[in-house]
Amino acid sequence: MLSSNIYALKKIIITGVAGLLGSRMAEWIIANQPNCTIIGIDDLSGGYKEYVPAGVDFHQLDLSKDAIAPLFEGADIVYHFAAYAAEGLSPFIRKYNYNSNLVATANVVNACIEHNIGRLVFTSSMAVYGHGKPPFNEADQPSPIDPYGVAKYACEMDIQIAGEQHGLEWCIIRPHNVYGRNQNIWDRYRNVLGIWMFQHINNLPFTIFGEGDQQRAFSCIDDCLLPLWKAGTDDRAKKRIINIGSWKYYSIKDAAEVLKKVIGNGEIKHEQARHEVKDALPSHELSVTLLDYEDNTSLEAGLTDMWQWAKQQPMRVQKSWDNYEVEKGIYGFWKNKK
């Protein structure tokens, strides 16, 4: 049952509002909660201003260093979606990873405490589980295997400490492989489905690391929006950690075959295997009982919608790092930086 004060909500802050989660969440709120005002924050390092819906009070700010606290005054909910989620790249950009994820989150937490925010919803990651024992359960002891997972787990712990010491109300969401319209398909280091779409548009083969037998659950953004709203408003979600997303598992090579079917053709190229979890498979029961999550969109249907959108996008330059913080051990497919 929804919190009794839901209809009194007036001000909502969304960080990462120019990215997939942020822009689509803003759209959903505008359509379904028209009495709310939305303050959107994004530094546009991975999102695009044209994805920010009309009606959002947008501020281009860097969460890790700019003054954000004044914007939080009077806010009811903060959805903290901003992150650089290039998990595989994180061992080679450690400082950037911790700054953009951990330091930025610390500033958001400080602002929430200072202005007595009603609830902070933080999107963590399946990366906190590490190899684990699938299906990953929220009660499992996290054991991340890369700096990105470490940063997300540190953020989770910091938020919980703020709850104990300062009374901050929170909900931590661990989404997995969310995809859909407004995703950044121009970043070669993250979002495998988007990477494949970019590659196909540019007459390149789909790249798969290793044999492609590693398993993932891919989650359509459309199925996540109402549950994310409830993460910020429902009493059941108060101070809970919840996996969110699909529980239908695909190997990477099978997911590539689904996309090939959607597009109508495509080739696959196998690259060097990289340091990653083989089977990142989540449990889903809490998302159903606490957030009423419904896994309605098949991978084929979700990719069909995303592909129609992707074909209409402008020809943007793919993001590539000019200099990595650590070159030692970097994979051959990232060395040419193209």
Keywords:
alpha/beta; disordered N terminus
Alpha carbon gyration radius = 19 Å
* Oligomeric nature of the chains: single chain
Name the strands of the widest sheet in spatial order.
3-2-1-4-5-6-11
SSE string: EHEEEHEHEEHEEEHEEHEEHHH
Major beta sheet summary: 7 strands, parallel
Q: Averaged pLDDT, please?
A: 94
Structural class: alpha/beta
Global shape: globular
The helix tally amounts to: 9
How far is the first residue's CA from the last residue's CA?
A: 50 Å
Uncertain runs with pLDDT below 50, 5 residues or more? 1-5
Strand content: 15-25%
How many strands appear in the DSSP assignment? 14
Q: What share of residues is helical? A: 25-40%
What does this structure look like?
By secondary structure, this protein is of the alpha/beta class. It is built from 9 helices and 14 strands. The chain has helices spanning 20-32, 94-114, 147-166, 192-201, 221-233, 252-263, 285-291, 299-310, 332-335, and strands at residues 11-15, 37-42, 57-60, 77-80, 119-123, 170-175, 178-179, 206-209, 215-217, 219-220, 241-244, 249-251, 268-271, 279-280. The model is unreliable at 1-5 (pLDDT under 50).
Can you give me a brief rundown of this structure?
Helix content is 33%, strand content 16%. The protein is α/β, with parallel strands linked by helices and 338 residues long. It is globular.
